[in-house]
Amino acid sequence: TNDALGASAKNIGMLFNSRHIYFIPLSQDDCEGKPNSLIAHWDLLPKALESAVKTMGIICGWVILFRILIGYLEILPLATMPPAIRCLLLGLLELTNGCCMLSTISSLGLRFLLAALLLSFGGVCVIMQTASVAGALGVGSYLKGKLLQTGFTFLLSLPISAFMEGGSPGILLLFCLPIAVIAAFSSVICKNRSRNSVAVGV
User: Fold this and answer.
1) In terms of CB atoms within 10 Å, which end of the chain has fewer, N or C?
2) 6 with 36: CB under 8 angstroms?
3) What are the phi and psi torsion angles at 199 (to 5°)?
4) Mean of pLDDT over the chain
């Protein structure tokens, strides 16, 4: 199309972000003569399909592998452990199985705390799936962010969990402390990034 980067660019961008809509790889065919024109590279379609199927196979493979591992753990070492410990360990390995076990915990406050921790961390299975598709980018920064997010979630959820267990309303004042810590930490990170950032002219 000769108008892909013109009036149609907004609509094409929205379609790129829509579910179940896929594009053939595109590029400009004449950036000087036709700056708004894009062409589709149909010759790349087989390679794109092959890459998509391979990626989905790898992700499904990790899910199956962790489900088998959890099946063995439930039979052997985790069978005699308290429900809260089982839920935490299984959830750290694979999020869905851990969340399914939350119903076995009678304490509402503990259930809330474990749910918050598991949802913020996401599970080792998700980390391995991400590592499989990240390629050369790696998951170092991603993993640090996950651990940092889990730590913040624990600080924020702990006073709420204690209140749900029958603690006095005053315990919610502790909620202000982790918020202050997070705000200070975020401020330091933003200042460091603004110092280290370099403006690049295009």
Assistant:
1) C
2) yes
3) -80, 130
4) 80
The residue type found at 61 is: G
DSSP per-residue letters across 144-189: HHHHHHHHHHHHHHHHHHHHHTT--GGGGGGGHHHHHHHHHHHHHH
User: What is the DSSP pairing of strand 39-40 with strand 26-27?
Assistant: antiparallel
How far apart are alpha carbons 49 and 125 in whole angstroms? 24
- Which stretch of 3-17, 71-85, 188-202 has the lowest confidence by average pLDDT? 188-202
- What is the C-alpha to C-alpha distance for residues 27 and 151, in angstroms, rounded to an integer? 43
Structure pTM?
A: 0.65
Taking only Cα atoms into account, the Rg of the chain, rounded to an integer number of angstroms, comes to 24
Q: Can you name the residues that pair with 195 across neighbouring β-strands?
A: none
Find the helix or strand (DSSP H, E) in which 137 lies: none
- Paired with 26 in beta bridges are 40
Between vectors from CA 181 to CA 162 and to CA 139, what angle results, nearest 5°? 95
Residue bearing tokens 């598991």: 118
The amino acid at 23: F
SS (H, E, C) 59-105: HHHHHHHHHHHHHHHHHCCCCCCCHHHHHHHHHHHCHHHHHHHHHHC
CA distance 187 to 135: 31
